[in-house]
């Protein structure tokens, strides 16, 4: 497209210069060039935002080592599939991520033999729903129950980090090694889903607004500010594209009693964990999952103290001051919680902390998304 644009300009130049006319033609040529927007000619037509719906259609598959590889070339996933089309590449990556999420659900059910429980437990047929995964003995194991809570973002049940699943392997980014190890050591397991907070539905297209013959009602100054703001937003997203694709406009319908990670963890505690048979409950909470556990501790302190034996946090972002944790909560956390954090220090090296809550120790890595071998907490 760029070559054709330049070819068109050169053709105009050649035709103009070949004709007699001297100074008049030169002036006309300058006027013509001043009206040609070279930036506009350099823009690309953005491809449609339609992507494959299965790994097979993406031409990717997981090999025996759990690595995502192209089925023809054997190469890892390539983000920059189309050069200079970052937004399109990002949307393609997100589409693959949704497929990965479904793949992990399938592994939880088939490989880990877990079952899906719908939330809320009394949900009507037509209301938005979430779910968690339970091992067969999660509710009736009389001894031990392990609860897994991931961080905030796009990750869903069974995932620690989608990026690691795509770029490294299944074991690095999913909770499956932890679930398998827990089962071997006699734990029941609950896999929470704290980021499934709403149902996304497409907005109906709004009819074009009728403009009064006398002009819009809002003041000209306010209208100009709005147009300037909207124009800047469009430039930020679409400055590279001549014909940008329109994204679907959606509404988010909250899931009852599960509209935030904190609500979700509290709801699962009230309806599943507290009703389980296990005398000893253990948590592994990553990043925002640690904050959600502290919030649970604050709201259900007596219950948590009577059932939970230990909490392994990893790069937890909780803040006992901002969350207004009481003295008794802090004292319990110092005895029963430990936060493994990113550090250049050797694994399990004690680290200084500014907050009077749980001990902080080194995870032995500078970027922690639970790549390390799972070590199930002991009673």
What does this structure look like?
The structure is a single chain. The protein is of the alpha/beta class and 379 residues long. The protein has a domain at 115-201 and 252-362: Rossmann fold, CATH 3.40.50. It contains 13 helices and 13 strands. It has helices spanning 2-18, 23-34, 38-42, 55-58, 86-110, 162-167, 170-173, 176-184, 220-238, 261-273, 288-299, 301-307, 327-336; strands at residues 60-62, 68-70, 115-119, 130-134, 144-149, 188-191, 198-202, 250-254, 280-286, 308-314, 337-341, 350-351, 360-362. The strands form three sheets. The protein has a nine-stranded mixed sheet with strand order 3-4-6-5-9-10-11-13-12, with helices on both faces. Strand 12 and strand 13 (360-362) form a beta hairpin. Helix 1 runs antiparallel to helix 2 and helix 11 (288-299) crosses helix 12 (301-307). The longest helix has 25 residues, at 86-110. The chain is globular. It starts with a helix and ends in a 17-residue tail after the last strand. Mean pLDDT is 84; it is low at 38-42 and 370-379. Residues 204-253 are annotated as: Disordered. Residues 1-18 form the signal peptide. It comes from Paramormyrops kingsleyae.
Record keyword descriptors for this entry.
single chain; two-stranded antiparallel ribbon; 13 helices; 38% helix; alpha/beta; disordered C terminus
């Amino acid at each position: 497209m760029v070559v054709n644009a330049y070819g068109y300009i050169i053709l105009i130049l050649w035709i103009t210069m070949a004709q007699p006319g001297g100074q008049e033609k030169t002036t006309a040529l300058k006027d013509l060039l001043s009206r040609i927007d070279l930036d506009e000619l350099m823009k690309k037509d953005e491809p449609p935002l339609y992507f494959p719906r299965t790994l097979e259609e993406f031409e990717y598959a997981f090999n025996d080592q759990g690595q995502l590889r192209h089925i023809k070339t054997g190469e890892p996933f390539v983000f920059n599939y189309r050069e200079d089309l970052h937004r399109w590449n990002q949307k393609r990556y997100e589409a693959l991520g949704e497929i990965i999420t479904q793949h992990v659900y399938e592994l939880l059910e088939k490989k880990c033999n877990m079952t899906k429980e719908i939330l809320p437990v009394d949900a009507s047929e037509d209301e938005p729903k979430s779910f968690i995964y339970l091992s067969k003995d999660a509710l009736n194991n009389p001894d031990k129950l392990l609860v897994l809570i991931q961080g905030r973002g796009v990750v869903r049940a069974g995932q620690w980090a989608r990026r690691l699943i795509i770029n490294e392997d299944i074991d690095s980014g999913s909770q499956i090694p932890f679930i398998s190890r827990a089962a071997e050591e006699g734990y029941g397991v609950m896999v929470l889903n704290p980021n499934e907070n709403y149902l996304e539905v497409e907005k109906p297209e709004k009819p074009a607004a009728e403009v009064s013959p006398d002009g819009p009602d809002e003041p000209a100054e306010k209208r100009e500010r709005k147009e300037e703001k909207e124009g800047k937003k469009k430039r930020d997203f679409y400055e590279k594209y001549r014909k940008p694709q329109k994204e679907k406009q959606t509404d988010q319908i909250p899931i009852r009693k599960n509209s935030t990670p904190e609500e979700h963890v509290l709801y699962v505690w009230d309806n599943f964990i507290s009703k389980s048979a296990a005398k000893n409950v253990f948590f592994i909470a990553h990043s925002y999952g640690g904050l959600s556990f502290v919030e649970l501790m604050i709201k259900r302190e007596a219950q948590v103290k009577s059932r939970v034996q230990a909490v392994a946090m990893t790069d937890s972002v909780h803040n006992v001051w901002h969350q207004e944790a009481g003295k008794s909560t802090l004292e319990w956390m110092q005895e029963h919680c430990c936060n493994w954090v990113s550090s250049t220090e050797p694994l399990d090296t004690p680290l200084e902390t500014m907050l009077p809550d749980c001990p902080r120790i080194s995870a032995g890595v500078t970027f922690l998304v639970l790549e390390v071998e799972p070590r199930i907490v002991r009673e």
